[in-house]
């Protein structure tokens, strides 16, 4: 297995795992019931769906606030892991692309040309000389 293929497979696997963790549904127990917290990437807050008119005593708001606190704590771990997995997967895929480009340049003998504002930038030894 080539380095490029290994890097791209590892990057793809990291992205798939990160999205699986990030979109896995999270539920927490609050009182006698269960609260739906959404996922790490798409959170759901219990206070968003709270109806003030149906609860004149305000006891439901306290329970919704407690559910929000517990949901936030439950989402923080998977959210951190998922974001780190996405970043790591993207770094691995970029490294695979760079490795592939370098291999292609070495095989074809192509010289690397850096451009600045659409014009070729001279090599280090030729910076003081005018190009014709």
Question: How would you characterize this protein structure?
Answer:
With 132 residues, this protein is mainly alpha-helical. It has one domain (3-126). The chain is 53% helix and 11% strand. The protein contains two helices and four strands, in the order αββαββ. It has helices at residues 3-22, 59-108, and strands spanning 26-30, 33-38, 115-116, 119-120. The strands form two sheets. The chain has a two-stranded antiparallel sheet. A two-stranded antiparallel sheet has the order 3-4. A hairpin with a 2-residue loop joins strand 3 and strand 4. Helix 1 (3-22) packs antiparallel against helix 2. The longest helix is centred in the middle third of the chain and has 50 residues, at 59-108. The radius of gyration is 26 Å and the shape is elongated. The model has no long low-confidence stretch (mean pLDDT 80). The chain crosses the membrane at residues 80-98. Keywords: Membrane, Transmembrane, Transmembrane helix.
């Amino acid at each position: 297995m080539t380095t490029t293929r290994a890097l791209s497979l590892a990057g793809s696997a990291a992205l798939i795992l990160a999205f699986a963790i990030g979109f896995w549904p999270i539920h927490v127990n609050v009182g006698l019931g269960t609260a739906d917290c959404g996922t790490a990437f798409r959170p759901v807050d219990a206070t968003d769906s709270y109806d003030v008119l149906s609860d004149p005593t305000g006891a439901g708001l306290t329970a919704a606030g407690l559910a929000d606190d517990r949901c936030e704590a439950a989402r923080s771990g998977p959210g951190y892991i998922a974001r780190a997995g996405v970043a790591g997967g993207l770094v691995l895929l970029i490294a695979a692309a760079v490795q592939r480009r370098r291999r292609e340049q070495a095989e074809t003998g192509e010289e690397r040309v850096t451009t600045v504002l659409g014009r070729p930038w001279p090599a280090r030894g030729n910076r003081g000389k005018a190009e014709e």
